[in-house]
Amino acid sequence: MSTHQPDFPSHAASNDVAERDEHPQRFENPGLPPHKERLSDTDERSAKRAERQVVALLVISIIAAVGGVAGYFAFDTAGGAQAVRFSTLSIGAGLGIAMLCIGLAAVHWAKALMVDSEIVEERHPITSDELTREEAVRKLTDGVADSRIQRRPVLKGALASALLLAPLPFAVPLIGNLSSDWNISKFRHTAWANRPDGAQGRRLARDPEDEPIKASDVTIGSVFHVIPHELGKLPGEEHFMEEKAKAVVLLVRIDPNELIEAEDRKDWSYDGIVAYSKICTHVGCPVALYEQQTKHLLCPCHQSTFDMTDGAKVVFGPAKRPLPQLPITVDDEGYLIATSDFHEPIGPSYWERLK
């Protein structure tokens, strides 16, 4: 009769395991692979060709930057939405192409022309003594030498020109908006104040169709985006987009029993139809998200929320003032008209607002 004895590691095997754990197998540092010369390192014609390619990219960047600025001025933004679209497209395309070509030129320059020798730098304590600063300056000097920019004046000139001109498509519109025109009274008056000859008031029209709106067309819960009828056809309305930006209105019809109206504003609405400026009183974004159930109007930029049943007062968000209300009624033909301009400046607050 035989008995099975469990296998236990011998004392010698245990020592071997412990020794391996204490002294894991080490590998020799393989070092860097052999440096491979590029074609531009051995053939001067190839290097010149790469230089011309980099210069060509930088020249394209220069042309794009100048073209973007030229396109920005070429399209008169007073000519309507199409002109604004092309002007914006020109400046954006010019800026994008200019920056893209500079990036491509930098990558191609680094890969084809700059020194690509492998360098090993041992770690050392970071200090700020004089020797360290001198070493840093020396490395910067060596870096300039490695880029070989001193041997290529055409490349150097193209790079400097591209870097100087590329920001123009961004800077020119910004500088243009910092003009000396600080006539803030423009915010106190809109095209709703203009009256066609012999008319009772400016008719409310659908945006962008410019179709006058009858009160009978506005059902409870419906929403209309509104502009002054025939905007741009009366004196003083030559700058159509500017006038439209100030005069845009949101029109809704609410059950009159749900409206909370101040005594001095009871005649500003018509049978539950109310009209408020679409320009948010926070930073001027268009408030156009209407919640039919809550009767709330939301600004998509910063979530300011206005209660349309209670004078468009702020119920949430960073806005501090209600939306300006446009007084409305109907004319002899049943069309909705504005009885006056807004009674307060539209848009965000500014330093000379009285309230």
UniProtKB/TrEMBL annotation:
<feature type="transmembrane region" description="Helical">
    <location>
        <begin position="54"/>
        <end position="75"/>
    </location>
</feature>
<keyword id="KW-0560">Oxidoreductase</keyword>
<dbReference type="InterPro" id="IPR045603">
    <property type="entry name" value="QcrA_N"/>
</dbReference>
<keyword id="KW-0249">Electron transport</keyword>
<dbReference type="InterPro" id="IPR017941">
    <property type="entry name" value="Rieske_2Fe-2S"/>
</dbReference>
<keyword id="KW-0408">Iron</keyword>
<feature type="domain" description="Rieske">
    <location>
        <begin position="246"/>
        <end position="337"/>
    </location>
</feature>
<dbReference type="GO" id="GO:0005886">
    <property type="term" value="C:plasma membrane"/>
</dbReference>
<protein>
    <recommendedName>
        <fullName>Cytochrome bc1 complex Rieske iron-sulfur subunit</fullName>
    </recommendedName>
</protein>
<keyword id="KW-0813">Transport</keyword>
<dbReference type="Pfam" id="PF19297">
    <property type="entry name" value="QcrA_N"/>
</dbReference>
<dbReference type="InterPro" id="IPR005805">
    <property type="entry name" value="Rieske_Fe-S_prot_C"/>
</dbReference>
<comment type="similarity">
    <text>Belongs to the Rieske iron-sulfur protein family.</text>
</comment>
<feature type="transmembrane region" description="Helical">
    <location>
        <begin position="157"/>
        <end position="176"/>
    </location>
</feature>
<feature type="transmembrane region" description="Helical">
    <location>
        <begin position="87"/>
        <end position="107"/>
    </location>
</feature>
<feature type="region of interest" description="Disordered">
    <location>
        <begin position="1"/>
        <end position="46"/>
    </location>
</feature>
<feature type="compositionally biased region" description="Basic and acidic residues">
    <location>
        <begin position="17"/>
        <end position="26"/>
    </location>
</feature>
<keyword id="KW-0411">Iron-sulfur</keyword>
<keyword id="KW-0472">Membrane</keyword>
<dbReference type="InterPro" id="IPR036922">
    <property type="entry name" value="Rieske_2Fe-2S_sf"/>
</dbReference>
<keyword id="KW-0812">Transmembrane</keyword>
<keyword id="KW-1003">Cell membrane</keyword>
<dbReference type="Pfam" id="PF00355">
    <property type="entry name" value="Rieske"/>
</dbReference>
<keyword id="KW-0001">2Fe-2S</keyword>
<dbReference type="GO" id="GO:0051537">
    <property type="term" value="F:2 iron, 2 sulfur cluster binding"/>
</dbReference>
<keyword id="KW-0679">Respiratory chain</keyword>
<feature type="compositionally biased region" description="Basic and acidic residues">
    <location>
        <begin position="34"/>
        <end position="46"/>
    </location>
</feature>
<comment type="function">
    <text>Iron-sulfur subunit of the cytochrome bc1 complex, an essential component of the respiratory electron transport chain required for ATP synthesis. The bc1 complex catalyzes the oxidation of menaquinol and the reduction of cytochrome c in the respiratory chain. The bc1 complex operates through a Q-cycle mechanism that couples electron transfer to generation of the proton gradient that drives ATP synthesis.</text>
</comment>
<dbReference type="GO" id="GO:0016705">
    <property type="term" value="F:oxidoreductase activity, acting on paired donors, with incorporation or reduction of molecular oxygen"/>
</dbReference>
<dbReference type="GO" id="GO:0004497">
    <property type="term" value="F:monooxygenase activity"/>
</dbReference>
<dbReference type="InterPro" id="IPR014349">
    <property type="entry name" value="Rieske_Fe-S_prot"/>
</dbReference>
<keyword id="KW-1015">Disulfide bond</keyword>
<dbReference type="GO" id="GO:0046872">
    <property type="term" value="F:metal ion binding"/>
</dbReference>
<keyword id="KW-1133">Transmembrane helix</keyword>
<keyword id="KW-0479">Metal-binding</keyword>
